[in-house]
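Thread: Newbie trying to understand structure tokens

Hi all, I'm a second-year student working on a class project, and my supervisor (Dr. K.) asked me to get a predicted structure for one chain before our next meeting. I've only ever worked with sequences, so writing a 3D structure as a token string is new to me. If someone could post the tokens and maybe explain what I'm looking at, I'd be very grateful. Here's the chain:
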Amino acid sequence: MDDQIKNGTAKRIKIEVDPEGPEEVVIRCKKLTPEILKLQELLETGATAPSVQKLSLTIGDEEYLVDLRKILFFETADGRVAAHTDKRIYNTDMKLYELESILPAAFMRVSKTCILNLEAVGWLRRELTGPCRVGFGTSPKQVYISRMYYKPFREKLEEMRMILK
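---
Reply by user tm_fold:
Sure, no problem. This is what the structure looks like when written as tokens:
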């Protein structure tokens, strides 16, 4: 684990208790990301992270409450956002950036047009041209991870694997 911290591949959290010192939280990071800003806001307001378990989605005129664990990915095409499960495609009026703000940590943006459920990833294959192709177990559905998102994707996937051990 120490080698991972030295190489910058793992995040570390350090808590120091000082009964006489001031109460403060310091975040050191390589760059300011939306996740860090969200963490800052949660710390400042004392709020808790949203805990969405189900999402209201539609197919035609019918509305469904869909368990987030069943969603493989969200994808935008032709100005519409679709939520893909193993067998169905639902629609939502929310934009990808709105979904990012309410989805749990298992969901991650992997391209300009896609948010992926990391817990649903069954396999991945690196393509010669650069992007990475991801599949979902028994589902024939696949998505591509753009080169820009590949490194953060691998890091977050590795973090999740370490948590599950």
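A couple of things are worth pointing out once you decode it. Residues 2-45 form one domain. The chain has two domains: 2-45, 54-164. Feel free to ask follow-ups in this thread.
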